[in-house]
Every structure is written in structure tokens, then in C-alpha cells.
Design a protein that fits this description.
The protein is 64% helix and 5% strand. The protein is mainly alpha-helical. It has a domain at 3-75: Orthogonal Bundle (Arc Repressor Mutant, subunit A), CATH 1.10.10.10. The protein has a two-stranded antiparallel ribbon with strand order 1-2. It is elongated.
């Protein structure tokens, strides 16, 4: 998968609030499908579909521990998405800073408004 495809998969997976909630839960520690199903009003197969999307995006990994198959969060794709977003945050910060500088310059170079005399 190319970096662009990985980024697409990450953002597509993060677009769903259930998947974001699953990642938030996994940020606290590993969990099985049954444990991940508890806080949601949906079936275990529905949660499993969300987990497959997260796994295809590389956001979670499944490990085997005896009969348990806990899921854990994988930070690398989130770090890549954060780096992509950070690039644009810095771009806009520079643009807003330049706009602030221009506004200050305009304010200091503009002569004060004179009062008009009424006749």
C-alpha cells in the first residue's frame, strides 16, 4: 500500500464515530471483540466489521493469546495522519501570521482619520 493509500484508509476509518470510539477504548489497552461490543448498542458481527476496517487501515492489530484474540491500537498510521495534518496546520499558521503582520503594517502606516468640518 502506498503512503497515499495508507493515509486514505486511515482517514476513511476515522470518519466513523464508532471506529473512533473503538480506537479510544483501545488506547486504554487491549480488548477482545466481546469487550469492545459492550459499550455499543450493536451486535458483535457489526463491531467485527468495524474492526476489519480498522485492521485493513493498519490502525489496530490482532494478537493471539491462547483462545483470546485481543486487539491493540497501532500508532504508526495515526502518526502519519498527524504529520499530514501538521503540515497544513503550519501552512495556515504562517498565512495567518503574515496576515496579522500586514494588518499591523496597515494600521501603523495609515494616517489618522481627520474630522470633517460641517458647513
Amino acid at each position: 500500500m502506498t503512503p497515499s493509500e495508507r493515509l486514505d484508509a486511515t482517514f476513511a476509518a476515522l470518519a466513523d464515530p464508532t471506529r473512533r470510539a473503538i480506537l479510544a477504548r483501545l488506547a486504554e489497552g487491549e480488548a477482545t471483540v466481546a469487550e469492545l461490543t459492550l459499550p455499543f448498542a450493536m451486535s458483535q458481527p457489526a463491531i467485527s466489521k468495524h474492526l476489519k476496517v480498522l485492521e485493513r487501515a493498519g490502525l489496530i492489530i490482532t494478537t493471539e493469546s491462547g483462545q483470546r484474540r485481543p486487539r491493540t491500537i497501532e500508532a504508526a498510521p495515526l502518526a502519519e495522519a498527524n504529520a499530514w495534518l501538521e503540515h497544513y496546520r503550519q501552512l495556515w499558521e504562517r498565512r495567518y501570521s503574515a496576515l496579522d503582520d500586514l494588518l499591523v503594517q496597515l494600521q501603523t502606516n495609515t494616517p489618522p482619520k481627520s474630522k470633517r468640518k460641517r458647513h
